[in-house]
Structures are given as C-alpha cells and as structure tokens.
Amino acid sequence: MRSGILYLVSGPSGSGKSTLCRRLAAEGEAEFSVSCTTRQPRFGETHGKEYFFLTVEEFEARVAAGDFLEHALVHGNHYGTLRSEVIGRLAAGIDVVMDIDVQGAAQVRACENESIRLALVDLFVMPPDEDELARRLRGRGTDSDEVIALRLSNAIDEMHHWPEYRFRLLSGRPEKDYAKFKSLLFGERMRVSRLSKGDLEV
Fold first, then answer.
1. Any known ligand binding at 15?
2. pLDDT, tens digit (0-9, with 9 covering 90-100), for 88-133
3. 180 assigned ligand-binding residue
4. Which of 19, 72, 112, 149 has the most Cβ atoms closer than 10 angstroms to its Cβ?
C-alpha cells in the first residue's frame, strides 16, 4: 500500500485555495486537515469543521506541548496544524489536503519527520492580479474594510514566496482551476516512488 500524500496548498486570501481544498475533500479524494485558530468564527462556521477555534491560552498550551506540526501568526491571529490531523492518516495511506499560509508551509518543509518529507506535495495558488484579488475579497462580504486592506497588504508579501513551491496554479476560472488542482493529486498517486511492490504488480 502506498503512503498517503500530504497535499499542502498555500496562496493569499481570495486566491481560491480554500475552495479548492474543501471541494477535493467533499468529493472524497482526500481528507481535509482542520487547522486550529484563535480568530473568531465567521457566520456559519462550526468548531471542528472549518477550524478548531481556540483561545490564545489554549493555543499557546498546545504549542508548549509540541502538538503542532506547524503554527504561525497570520493577520493578527494564531493558526496551526495538529500532528494528530496528519501523521496517522498518511501512515494509513490516506491523502491529506492542507490549506496553510507560507510561514506554516516553510515549517512543514523543514520538518524532520521522514513520513512528512516523503509525502509532501506543495502547491501555490496565485491570483491573476491584485485588482482581481481585491474584488474577490470584497465580494465575500465577511470582512471590514480595515481587514480587507490588511489581507491585501499581506497578500502582496505572500505572492513573493511562490518560487519556494514545487508547483504553481495561476487562478482563473473555477472549474478549470479545480481540474488542474485535482490532476496534480492524481498524477502524484501514480508516481512510482510512492508505490509498494504489490502496487507495481497489479
């Protein structure tokens, strides 16, 4: 049996990365790694589904306990991925999709856990341009003008990191984006280095 793939996806707010990740999980192609955050839930968000919503004190206690595979401060809030959300699934041959920022992605790449290093496939979702990114953020209707301005500023910084990733998806039409996004995962499943001898003989 092959080991699971850790499909790590980054990109600025409004790039469409979260929609791609959640659609992949909804179709049963991978399991979504639910992140922890200290930000307040948006309307309709549920603890344990979109995020594990923690207080700053709870988050810091889990950092001290070594529970996180990666964690970072983004837009003034803490975000992190629990080891328990990833490592066991990969060992069971389950593909895991992660939606994380560039700081967290760098920590995952630097991880010394061999199963993580072998499983990792990293993709940066790049918005077409800054004007389109701003339009998408305003179109959400979930953030104040002040938060949108902060996200746009951070997005410009994040976009400078795309060369650190093995793959890049230039965002365009949603259906075409998703077809490319899914095809990368399918291609990685066929890579010989991920297959056991039994798989090769089938």
1. yes
2. 999 999 999 999 989 899 999 999 888 899 999 999 999 877 777 7
3. no
4. 72
3-class DSSP assignment, residue 36: strand
H/E run at residue 10: strand 6-10
Residue ranges making up the domain that contains 18: 6-193
Does 14 carry a binding-site annotation? yes
How much is the CA Rg of the chain, to the nearest whole Å?
17
Q: What pTM value is reported for the model?
A: 0.82
Residue 13 assigned as binding residue: yes
Residue 200 lies in a domain: no
The CA distance from 42 to 107, in Å, is 27
- In what helix (H) or strand (E) does residue 91 lie, and over which residues does it extend? helix 87-91
- Determine whether the annotation assigns residue 12 to a binding site: yes
Structural domain count of the chain? 1
198 annotated binding-site participant: no
- To the question of whether residue 44 is assigned a binding role by annotation, the answer is no
Of 95, 93, 84, 117, the closest CA to residue 181 belongs to 95
